[in-house]
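Structure tokens please, single chain.
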Amino acid sequence: MKFIHLSDLHIGKRVNGFSVLEDQKYILDQILMIAEEEMPDGVLIAGDVYDKPVPPAEAVQVFDAFLTGLADRNLPVFVISGNHDSPERLAFGGQLMKDRSVYMAPVYDGHVEPIHMEDRYGSLWVYMLPFIKPAVVRRCWPEEGIETFDDAVRCALGHMTGHKKGTDDRNILIAHQFVTGASCCDSEELSIGGLDQVSADLFDYFDYVAMGHIHGPQKVGRDTLRYSGTPLKYSFSEVNHRKSVTVVELLEKGNVTVNTRPLKPLHDMRELKGSYEELTSRDFYQGTAVDDYLHITLTDEEDILDAIGKLRSIYPNVMKLDYDNKRTREGNVVEAAAKADKPPIVLLEELYRLQNNQPMTGQQADFAGKLMEEIWEGSR
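Here you go.
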């Protein structure tokens, strides 16, 4: 039995102030085409469908179109909520959608009823565990003494699999948690100090674990405990990620194969570095994807006036601009002035030198002096 594993769609997300909704529509259409080619028996969506608990109407429309596209292809779909989703909103209409084999995980109430599937190798059970916190599980099972995320997931899984099916039955879990050992990036919301981590051995019962929450595609410990990652890059810490969807096939008990299908975005996310003159040279950018989402680092010693505006005339989707020069590399600590009787312009010049590792220009000093005089006169 074959499944496509997705997670962390984050539909409706804005990246550095840019809406990426059109990029999300594009990549979801690409996933529909992959589904047609792979002809899976189901699609697993492991949480963070939306980027916010109350998603904008446009985001809901995009997900509705994607679900409809999967259902029109007669593909069972299994969806859980992640930490960015509202479990109640995502579960709305779940009973009705079952008629089209779209299974939305209900709000966690201490019980998870697996969904049964059958093929020539026998029975397969799909367990759907939405993102859970210790407080949520503690309310359901107060006698269990739950304190940590690890306690909570251990308790939830124990009660899910307490009435085990046949020993040759295959079991899939869809979950959205931070498994110890997973590699993270800047666009994820994780607890300080790793308090939300759970042990990989909690999932030993399952033949395949479709995880969500971590944005980089990866396995944790074993090939069959896997994060599919986001379908798009959502921060510049992900520029080296190779985004994909995971295709998992379960044959007889113990025989599982895992592969990936690469995804090609509408706009890639890249980093460029060089002087303003270099980056604006036609020889440099001609023939490149200038409309990609870019983080540009300028190496000029002097700040370029309205640099981002000028750069966007060539690279319209510059998301972030930094400088890498003597000023930024050699930061000094600004301390209290040793002699408070110095003239204000001298103090300002000293502060400027400390902050920028270079003296003020004559033009800057003249401007600052005139501004101080105007302020002084106006305060009298």
